[in-house]
Every structure is written in structure tokens, then in C-alpha cells.
Design goal:
Keywords (chain A): Mitochondrion, Ribonucleoprotein, Ribosomal protein, Transit peptide
Helix content of chain B: 25-40%
CATH topology of chain A: 50s Ribosomal Protein L17, Chain: A
Order of helices and strands of chain B: HHHHEEHEE
Shape of chain B: elongated
Oligomer: heterodimer
Radius of gyration of chain B: 46 Å
CATH architecture of chain A: Alpha-Beta Complex
Family (chain A): Belongs to the bacterial ribosomal protein bL17 family.
Number of helices of chain A: 5
Number of strands of chain B: 4
Radius of gyration of chain A: 24 Å
Organism (chain A): Eubucco bourcierii (red-headed barbet)
Order of helices and strands of chain A: HEHHHEEH
Number of helices of chain B: 5
Number of strands of chain A: 3
GO molecular function (chain A): structural constituent of ribosome
Shape of chain A: extended
Strand content of chain B: 5-15%
Helix content of chain A: 40-55%
InterPro entries (chain A): Ribosomal_bL17, Ribosomal_bL17_sf
CATH superfamily of chain A: Ribosomal protein L17
Amino acid sequence: MRLSVAAAISHGRVFRHLGLGPRSRLDLLRNLVTALVRHERIEVPWARADEMRGYAERLIDYAKLGDTNERAMRMANFWLTEKDLIHKLFKVLAVRFQPHPGSYTRMLHIPNRDDIDRAKMAVIELKGNPFPPLIVPRRDTEKTLLNQLLKGYREDAQRAAVP
Amino acid sequence: LVMLFPPLPRLRSILQRCWGQLEHGLLLGFSRGPSPPWGPALAVQAPALLPESVNVTTENNEVPSLFDSILWMAAPKKRRTIEVNRCRRRNPNKLIKVKRNIDVCPECGNLKQKHVLCGYCYAKVKAETRLIRIEIGKKEGGPFNAPTVETVVLYDGEKPTEKEEGKRIIERARKRPSWFAQD
């Protein structure tokens, strides 16, 4: 016998409750998508970044269909509140991401916000932006123990192979 | 009044007489003064207009006072001993969990959580992006002037290569930092 209503259980629900209601949530996400297209790197609460990521990537997929496509233009018109960004979307971002099949954004976790709420923050950026990179891929130096041991092994093997 | 089924006709007659007497008494009471309310009367052979019955009926109309409801409130029966208190307070689910995911950032040496960016390195990058954005703002002039070409940032003494043909160039008046490699 069911002891609780199905509406009160949220197993498997994927969409978060943001803002004041469904329309407010869409407006919030729309503002965030506009900001991302304008600034190409924004620092937002982690939940909002997570929600917004899917919408942003789908918008870029629509933009890849081309300028002349009616549906793509209507999508861009709805999702970008600042109309000069529609030009940027179709002429810059669609061209930049043409060779990529998917995943145009990068989302990274930031230390908690300094405010009293200590919110979990994330930075979300479009790949290929002109700003300095957040993660610098570092190669191990020659001086690490493992690399020195490998170097010694390689030299021993050469000395053995020569005579 | 609980009406029992009288097994004998004699008991029945006795009860009927008693009931009649009670009703008679009640009627007398009514005729004497203003009609009292017909509340749940006590099963006592007595005239209706008792001083207690009026109080009882008025109290039934009022909300039960705190003095009565205290009898139905939850309260601890015994003092919790310090041993029991210690068991509850020091139970592992009440203690603060120890974090084991703290590492040292290889770039700057500050502490960072494993799945989070280093705070110092991020602040460094954030400051530089802010300065670049100020330069972009100066170049664009007003609001809503997003360019339709890509952007490239060049530092002191750097010339645009042939890869940066049609791009908008943002000049920064400083030496190129080591963590911002030119692609």
C-alpha cells in the first residue's frame, strides 16, 4: 500500500527547482546563457552552471545548423536577450566549434563563495576563449624520481645494445 | 444515564418512577428561574440547578485551560545520566567529519581540495581576465558592441602571426606571464 503521494517523492527527477517557478527558472537560465555567450567565462553557483550547461551546448548545436535556418534563428532569438550576441553566436562560435562534435563548455569547481552563504561555486567557460587558461597541463620535469630512474634504465639499455 | 434492560418488571417500574421523579425535579428547577442549559447532567438523583453543574457547563464551552492540558504534555521521566549524554553527543554521526581530500597545489604550494581549483591560482587568473576585459571594454566603446570576429590577447613586444589573421587584437601593457602560453 502506498504510504506517500507520488508527487512528494523525487526519485530520478533530473531538473532542479531554480528561481521562483518554471518561468523564472527559464529566465534565469536564459540570462546565464546570454552572459556566457557575451563573456565566455562566468563564475556562478554550481547548480545553475550545471543546469545551464546543457542549454548552452544545445544552443550551439542549433547555431551550427546555420544562419538561414528558421528554427535556429528563433532559438537564438529566444535564448539570447542581447541581440548583438546573435551575430556573435552564428559568426564566431558556430565557426569555432564546427570541427568539434560536442562538449563546447568546460565547468570547473571553485572554492566556496566568500559571502556568508559559502555557496558551492563553479566557473563555466567556452572552450577556445581568448583568456588565460584555468588549468595548465603540466608535464613532469626531468628531476622527478621516476623520470630519473627511467632515464638511467634507458642509458643502461643503450650501453648494453652498443657492444 | 446508562439504560440497562431490566430483567424483572418490578425493577422496570422502580426505574420509571425514579426517572419520573427526576424529570419532575428538573421541571421544577426550570420553572423557578431562567432556563439553565441542558448540558450532560450527572447521573445523580438531585435537582438540576446545582452550583457545580453551571460551572461544569460553562467550562465545557471554554477552551481547556493550560492547567488541564499540562496533564497531557510530554515530559522526561528521568534525568539523563552523563554516560547516556556522552554516548549521544560523541556518536560518530554527530562529530565533524575529517576531510582527507586536501592536497598541495603543485604551482603555488597552497592547499587545495582535490576536486576544486586552487584558490590562489584562480585568483591570479581572475585578476588577469579582469584587466583583459577592461581593455576589451575600452576597445568596444559602449555596451552591446560584441564583435563578429575572434579575439586574441597580445602582450608587450609581440606581433600577430599569420594564424591571427582576421582576429581582433587586445593589447596588454605587460610582459607575458609564464602560465599564459601563446598558442
